[in-house]
Amino acid sequence: MSEHQRGLALLQNPITNKGTGFTAEERQSHGMEGLLPTTVETLEAQVERVLGHLSAKPTDLEQYIYLEELCDRNRTLFYAVLMSDPARFVPIVYDPTIADACLTYGHIYRRPQGMYLTKEMKGRFAEVLSNWPNRDIRFICVTSGGRILGLGDIGANGAPIPIGKLQLYTACAAVPPDGLLPIHFDIGTTNAALRADPLYTGLRNEPPSPAEIDELVDEFMEAANAVFPGVCVHFEDWKGVDAIRLLARYKDKYLVLNDDIQGTASVTIAGLITALQIKREKLADQKIMFAGAGSAAIGIANMIVEEMKNEGASDEDARARVALFDVDGLLDAKRGDLSPSQRVYAKDLPPTKDLAEAVKAFKPTTLIGVSTTPGLFTEAVVKGVAASTDRPIIFPLSNPTDRAECTPEQAYAWTDGKALFAAGVQFPDVTVAGKTFHPGQANNFYVFPAFGLAVYATKPKRIDDQMWIAAAKGSADQVDQSAREKGMLYPPQRGILETEITTATRVAEHIFDRGLATVDRPDDIRAWIKGLTYTPRY
Ligand SMILES: NC(=O)C1=CN([C@@H]2O[C@H](COP(=O)(O)OP(=O)(O)OC[C@H]3O[C@@H](n4cnc5c(N)ncnc54)[C@H](OP(=O)(O)O)[C@@H]3O)[C@@H](O)[C@H]2O)C=CC1
Ligand SMILES: CC(=O)C(=O)O
Ligand SMILES: [Mg+2]
Q: Is residue 296 part of a domain?
């Protein structure tokens, strides 16, 4: 507890506040007598009260608003609630409810959370970052709002995303919350409707050119590392081309990660590993087609190629097994509009703008949707994949719920229940032709909190794709036989904390094995990591 704060100041500080949890002695010694109701309550009793409040909220968005206000009031209680039932609360503070929070952000805004930088602060980022009261920041999660989930460019309305992502570092993997700093990096927005909204909270201009964005982010990265030495910068939901360019620019210079590129790739590979164990096949023997060719698709494709190479494939063979399809159709060799990261996947196949035709031509065994386009996986598309394999892998990963390329009902119905399925959000169980399936959720929250915990513990100098592949394997190894029989491709969310600590342990082992850690290797890595984790308690 703060040495200097007393009385109301302690109650008004969300980090020190215990509300009715302050003991009689604390109330007396900290000048709080008379400032609280008589009864001294346990954290558990306070959690019960909060659960009652939440049950009375009419919508998930109302629950989100309540929980974020709770976080501003009493951070310990907030995490105690989230960690009491992650399967219930992850979808409230994160995907999919966070999409509603983003869409209405200027209207539901209550208090600042984290920091808000704008391009107008150019030349002063270090000075402005120094306004944050804590220098021991281990993770910054930063978005421009340029591509929030599948909602497009919503600028400053994307501010809840880094807040929610960092809350999951703690709620899912018990990374201590003091060292986490969410930032909205305001470069403006292409979204004219938002710019015209009187309650919009951001800059009302179009974003600058890529070269200007690079200049701004270069200064930001330098400032962040100067003000918060050793910080890991987590990029989230930037416009796809910015995301790919910035990760390439910084990955060998700073401790940096992009969750949409690397976290998504890792969680997708985790699901593929389990699905292929069910099929008893190798990744290097699959043919994988992507709907969407943006940051998520390129990230997943590149990491799949790395893992195929780990299995013995050549670079050329591995790339030949991956095809992409974007808003302009199949990425074929004649297209002149492809970026260098897309061009390596262009195929010598007839041009087509019809995904079913592209599937017929390429004959994938696996179809991954990262296109933000609901309904893109039609019956003809899914049946086309099923024509090449007994058990098609169908992953419509676009978020939020209404952006998924198909529903689980559709995928199971169109494949006579043979599909190995995962979506970006958790769909409820479905019964098709008398059989009940539990759809998988391939969402990067299965890995990025664990990955963050491993980075927190081992303090590696740099991050690379092999570390994310270790995370994928760590997650996949935790799906037991009974879960697989229900069609699950990921561990149950109920025990997410232990799952993520186990995944973090695998990543940490990998980091130590490769000599990339900057701390000494302990004898028992899991026990050591667990000892570093946060528990919400007074
Ligand atoms: N489940 C998970 O954990 C994650 C899910 N995602 C989801 O993936 C989606 C994409 O993210 P990201 O790659 O970063 O976004 P990008 O904006 O970088 O890429 C979107 C891609 O989809 C393409 N596209 C748009 N419309 C169509 C269409 N009708 N048919 C085919 N392709 C189309 C775009 O083509 P063009 O550029 O030519 O317009 C672009 O290549 C989002 O919905 C996001 O929520 C992302 C990260 C994690
Ligand atoms: C889950 C996530 O990171 C996204 O949809 O962008
Ligand atoms: Mg994202």
A: yes
Q: What is the 187 CA–ligand 3 centroid distance (Å)?
A: 18
The pLDDT, as a whole number, for residue 3 is: 54
56 and 140 inside one domain: no
Tell me the pLDDT tens digit for each residue of 418-455. Answer: 999 999 999 999 999 899 999 999 999 999 999 999 99
Same-domain check for residues 133 and 170 = yes
**Domain range holding 288?**
262-443
Residue 402 lies in a domain: yes
Write down the pLDDT at residue 488: 85
pLDDT tens for 451-506 read 999 999 999 999 999 999 999 999 999 999 888 877 789 998 889 999 999 999 99
491 belongs to a structural domain: yes
Residues 116-144 have pLDDT tens digits of: 999 999 999 999 999 999 999 999 999 99
Atom of ligand 2 nearest to the CA of 263: 3
Residues around the ion ligand 3 (C-beta < 5 A): 237, 260
Residue 145's contacts (CB-CB under 8 Å, 6 or more residues apart) are 153, 154, 155, 156, 157, 158, 159, 161, 184, 186, 189, 202, 237
Distance 224 CA to ligand 3 centre (A): 21
Write out residues with Cβ below 6 Å of ligand 2: 95, 149, 237, 259-260, 399, 424, 443-444
* Contacts of range 147-150, beta carbons closer than 8 Å, 24 or more positions apart: 147/237, 147/238, 147/239, 147/240, 147/243, 147/260, 147/294, 147/295, 148/99, 148/102, 148/237, 149/95, 149/98, 149/99, 149/102, 149/237, 149/399, 149/400, 149/403, 150/372, 150/398, 150/399, 150/400, 150/403
Which residues are part of the catalytic machinery? Answer: 94, 165
